[in-house]
């Protein structure tokens, strides 16, 4: 009886334990199946469903007339799937007999096969020509595991002519992914093999707009990850189209004009709106090579080139402005209350203490007032006037005209230049005392003054447009966002003072003794005014001068830079140009002729002027026109 009670007790304890264990298991099952249902359903779906991102086509970049500057073109690609080929290496060997396939490319494919699952397509080669793709397709029965498809690749129809503006795209690097993620842009599409982003120019500055939004496909897969059927497809949204202010044809013409020199840059800009019609830097490079993958030897060659073809000199090149800066000093003189008729005698040099500052004309210019001093670019006049008003007044005027600071342009790489004054020297240099000799150098655009061609074009526009504080604009409109041209404020500079300076700039080209008289536009009804400049790179020593050594005799990199800023037409300035010829020796000899040809070509492309001429001709010939003046076309058709 005692043994029976002991057995019953044990059975009860075991039963109780089993009941407790069953209760725990049941509770856990209920927890997993009810409470955690959504979590495990998601995990199950992730094992069963494969989600794949689909890249969006980049938005096109167009010029102001709708001419394509950056487009997407066909990209034929060849792939291999290892599980469908018994001998991948042998298949690659056969493929190499049909299309160019280097040893490095074959090794890369074999490395990819070793790392990826057997059913995963491995890219063998892209950018195949139509003929190459046809060869592969016609031989597919003999190429087990090989397939071809069509993707998109960025193409730049104008090549080198627009390379520095449009830029190029390239595969995103790990460093760029990390940088983007640090800023909170954790886009999974960055991790897609072969995904490309803007690297330079407009492509980089507006990459987020041009890139678009990725799409997605969802497909059911089996236990090893092979796709069985498509479940869902969300198409990608193509990037926005950008319309630039550029005139592609004028851009090409300007680039060709710069080819007369070894290294040069030019900017053409609207005086009233700030729209940039052309922005050229020569020499350049072919951006199509970068979007497809540039060969290492060509990359090394570009880096070693002393003319720096990869640098956009129009926005990144910093040069002393030389005599193109004298209008700044002239305006500062006028604002200080000095009469434009005040005269300074130029004997060919200026003495400051025991130091002689030379004028470019050894025999001197004689008595000079402001307009003749601008016309003949007399250094001594501006030395004296700069000494009278001081560097701070000159620097203040320079900044009002757009010098010494970035202009918030629409492409990366813009540099600020330098507009020195007493505060700048006290802030940046150990020797804080400002010397009179430094003021003399600044007054003629030498010394520490640095400007970019873009800033010089902006300065000129503000001089001739009545004092409107325009800035250069490159993006004219963005799809779905409309016009991007802002309304500009005034500089506050006296209109009368600007007229005096413009009179001097007109005389530089059209006056009897102007430094650019040889570059006058002689074709009616076109005209231009402007200012030459020569920026010293290396001073010729007294010994070299005694030996008769001239600047053009020095090695190329030691010669002076040649500059010219101009505007046209004279009677109603609408276009400005800034030209810098690196180591071109003299502004009147090297830069002015190029600027003349650019301004002439620009004015000839103005539909309003062309129509006016046509109507006037018709009227002279007794045509149907009665008014003699045509109404200007809509603004958007103007170059």
Q: Can you walk through the features of this model?
A:
By secondary structure, this protein is of the alpha+beta class. It has 3 domains: 194 residues, Penicillin-binding protein 2a (Domain 2) (Alpha-Beta Complex), CATH 3.90.1310.10; 347 residues, Beta-lactamase (3-Layer(aba) Sandwich); 32 residues, no CATH class. It has 24 helices and 21 strands. The strands form 6 sheets. Strands 2, 3, 4, 5, 10, 17 and 18 form a 7-stranded mixed beta sheet that branches. Helix 10 runs antiparallel to helix 23 and helix 14 crosses helix 17. The longest helix has 34 residues.
Question: Low-confidence segments, ≥5 residues, pLDDT <50?
Answer: 610-638
| CATH superfamily descriptor of the largest domain | DD-peptidase/beta-lactamase superfamily
Q: Work out the count of structural domains.
A: 3
Largest pleated sheet: 7 strands, mixed
What CATH architecture of the largest domain would you give?
A: 3-Layer(aba) Sandwich
Q: What is the C-alpha radius of gyration, as a whole number of Å? A: 35 Å
Give the number of helices. Answer: 24
Roughly what fraction of the amino acids lie in strands?
15-25%
Shape estimate: elongated
Q: Roughly what is the average pLDDT, rounded to an integer? A: 85
Helix/strand structural class: alpha+beta
Percent range of helical residues: 25-40%
How many beta-strand runs? 21
Give the end-to-end Cα distance, rounded to a whole number of Å.
116 Å
The CATH topology of the largest domain corresponds to: Beta-lactamase
CATH class of the largest domain: Alpha Beta
């Amino acid at each position: 009886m005692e043994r029976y009670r002991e057995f019953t007790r044990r059975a009860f304890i075991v039963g109780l334990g089993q009941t407790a264990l069953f209760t725990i298991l049941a509770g856990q099952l209920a927890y997993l199946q009810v409470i955690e249902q959504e979590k495990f359903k998601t995990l199950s779906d992730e094992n069963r469903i494969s989600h794949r991102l689909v890249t969006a086509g980049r938005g096109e970049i167009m010029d102001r007339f709708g001419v394509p500057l950056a487009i997407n073109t066909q990209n034929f690609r060849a792939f291999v799937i290892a599980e469908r080929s018994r001998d991948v290496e042998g298949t690659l060997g056969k493929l190499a007999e049909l299309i160019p396939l280097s040893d490095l490319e074959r090794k890369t494919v074999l490395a990819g096969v070793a790392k990826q699952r057997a059913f995963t397509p491995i890219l063998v080669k892209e950018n195949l020509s139509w003929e190459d793709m046809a060869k592969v397709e016609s031989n597919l029965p003999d190429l087990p595991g090989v397939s071809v498809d069509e993707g998109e690749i960025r193409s730049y129809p104008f090549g080198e002519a627009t390379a520095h503006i449009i830029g190029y795209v390239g595969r995103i690097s790990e460093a760029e992914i990390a940088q983007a993620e640090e800023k909170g842009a954790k886009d999974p599409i960055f991790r897609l093999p072969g995904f490309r982003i803007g690297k330079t120019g407009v492509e980089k500055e507006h990459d987020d707009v041009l890139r678009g939004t990725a799409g997605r496909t969802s497909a059911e897969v089996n236990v090893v990850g092979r796709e069985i059927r498509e479940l869902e497809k969300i198409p990608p949204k193509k990037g926005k189209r950008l319309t630039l202010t550029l005139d592609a044809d004028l851009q090409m013409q300007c680039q060709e004009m710069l080819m007369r020199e070894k290294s040069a840059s030019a900017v053409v800009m609207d005086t009233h709106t700030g729209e940039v019609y052309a922005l050229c830097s020569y020499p350049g490079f072919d951006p199509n090579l970068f979007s497809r993958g540039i060969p290492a030897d060509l990359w090394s060659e570009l880096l070693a080139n002393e003319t720096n073809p990869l640098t956009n000199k129009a926005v990144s090149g910093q040069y002393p402005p030389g005599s193109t800066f004298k209008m700044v000093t002239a305006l500062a003189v006028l604002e200080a209350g000095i009469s434009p008729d005040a005269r300074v005698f130029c004997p060919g040099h200026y003495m400051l203490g025991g130091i002689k500052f030379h004028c470019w004309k050894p025999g001197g210019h004689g008595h000079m007032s402001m307009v003749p001093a601008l016309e003949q670019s007399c250094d001594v006049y501006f030395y004296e006037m700069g000494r009278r008003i001081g560097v701070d007044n000159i620097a203040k005027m320079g900044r009002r005209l757009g010098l010494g600071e970035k202009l918030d342009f629409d492409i990366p790489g813009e540099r600020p230049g330098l507009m020195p004054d007493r505060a700048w020297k006290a802030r940046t240099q150990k020797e804080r005392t400002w010397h009179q000799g430094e003021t003399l150098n600044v007054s003629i655009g030498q010394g520490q003054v640095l400007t970019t061609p873009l800033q010089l074009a902006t300065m000129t526009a503000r001089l001739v447009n009545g004092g409107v504080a325009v800035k250069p604009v490159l993006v004219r409109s963005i799809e779905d966002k409309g016009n991007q041209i802002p309304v500009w404020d005034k500089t506050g500079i006296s209109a009368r003072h600007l007229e005096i300076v413009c009179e001097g700039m007109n005389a530089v080209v059209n006056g009897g003794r102007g430094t650019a008289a040889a570059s006058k536009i002689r074709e009616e009804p076109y005209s231009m005014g402007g200012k030459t400049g020569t920026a010293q790179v290396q001073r010729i020593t007294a010994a070299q001068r005694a030996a008769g050594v001239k600047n053009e005799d020095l090695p190329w990199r030691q010669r002076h830079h040649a500059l010219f800023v101009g505007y046209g037409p004279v009677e109603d300035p609408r276009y400005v140009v800034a030209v810098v010829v690196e180591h071109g020796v003299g502004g009147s000899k090297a830069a002015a002729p190029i600027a003349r040809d650019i301004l002439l070509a620009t004015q000839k492309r103005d539909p309003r002027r062309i129509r006016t001429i046509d109507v006037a001709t018709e009227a002279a010939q007794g045509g149907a026109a009665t008014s003699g003046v045509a109404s200007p076309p809509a603004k958007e058709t103007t170059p």
